[in-house]
Amino acid sequence: MKILVIANDTFTLFKFRYDMLKSLVNEGFEVYAVGPDDEYAGEIVKIGITYNKIEYLRTSLNPLSDVNLYKKYKNHIKKVSPDIVFTYNLKPNIYGILAAYNLGCRRIFAMIPGAGYVFSDISFKSRIIKKIIYPLYRSSLQKATNVFFQNPDDQEEFLRMKLVRNHQCVQIFGSGVNMDEFELEKLPEKISFVFLARLLKVKGIREYCQAAHKVRKHYPNTSFHVVGGIDDNPTTIDTNELECFIENDDIIYHGKADDVRPYLRQASVMVLPSYHREGVPHSILEAMAMGRAIITTNSVGCRETVIDGVNGLLVNVQDVKDLEEKLMWILKNPDLVHEMGEQSFRICSGKFDVKIINSIILKTMNIQKDLNYISS
Q: At what angle do helices 205-218 and 239-247 cross, to 10 degrees?
């Protein structure tokens, strides 16, 4: 059986779908992937996947560019002649599905890993984009056999907007985390915080830095770490603004990191005040697997990870004052951080383990031979 995965970058393949893809290869399936030629392409090939490289701009609004992308997908699908096509992210979910369907493939599975800024942003530009995206999504997603949603809010909205039909929907909880790689770790003696995500304004980086500035006036020895890269997303924080927070000693910036475990080990609490229309933030799952308390927003995707007051705290969206108060509460109640971290680990083990997530995906695709191979 041939399985073709269409993604918009190899980072997401490597970071979020690695365990599933490796399991499929180990079971003898022919696995192919299509995406750009970026820094993780070599890592994908190492596990036995045939990787076809194409070039396109994720953020381009040029219709000619999208038509060209559709043609590239179609050419690759013709070459591979897959039995199953699996797509995720915006453009693969639109043009990858349409190309596969028009070539006669009828086992097509799509994933919505969070609706993203297009669905949450209310600017004039986003409203125009939505008028283009919604009909395209409706045309493509309704041709899929099943559509995986990482949180119930996205599923409800896509149903309300009639982008999908009820019988197509399958609920999973995020991409899952490998509990063997992110093990429960002892907390540091001193309370410290870490923000771990791309440095997008919609991820709450600005609110985190502003709250850190205010908290450090009362607790000057408390450290606030930031781990994440800057990319071409339109909501990326201005580098000059970030430099101001760094120079003022509000935060300690570590840049982008392929392995986030060292930074989670030195932190007591993971903070992600996002309003990005997340699926389920993978960085939070990694922190939970290592036994860290969580502070995140009571918003789509994020709220799925926290039972307020049990394994962390929920804050209001874009509310620096509320975030400041929750950070101060943690510093005033350090004894509860250990208990919250243990609860995070328990919740993650029972709900967000990648073995559980992959089991649902592969069972839905009707290619699961044996549940045990998922952990191989």
A: 10
State whether residue 186 is helix, strand or coil. Answer: coil
Q: How confident is the model at residue 120 (pLDDT cuts 50, 70, 90)?
A: low
Architecture of domain 2-176+353-375: 3-Layer(aba) Sandwich (3.40)
In DSSP terms, 53 is beta-bridged to 35
Q: What is the pTM of this model?
A: 0.89
What does the pLDDT look like over 290-305, one tens digit per residue? 999 999 999 999 999 9
Distance between CA atoms of residues 173 and 232, nearest Å: 27
- Tell me the C-alpha distance between 315 and 306, whole Å: 11
| Stretch(es) of the chain classified as CATH 3.40.50.2000 | 2-176+353-375, 193-352
Task: Please state, as a whole number, how many other Cβ atoms lie within 10 Å of the Cβ of residue 73.
Answer: 28
- List all residues 6 or more positions away from 71 whose beta carbon is below 8 Å from its beta carbon: none
Sequential DSSP letters for 115-165: --HHHH--SHHHHHHHHHHHHHHHHHHTTSSEEEESSHHHHHHHHHTTSS-
Q: Using CB atoms within 10 A of its CB, is residue 28 exposed (0-12), middle (13-18) or buried (19+)?
A: exposed
3-state class of 239 per DSSP? Answer: helix
Tell me the C-alpha distance between 150 and 347, whole Å. 16
Report which residue type is found at 72. Answer: K
Q: Which CATH class is domain 193-352?
A: alpha beta
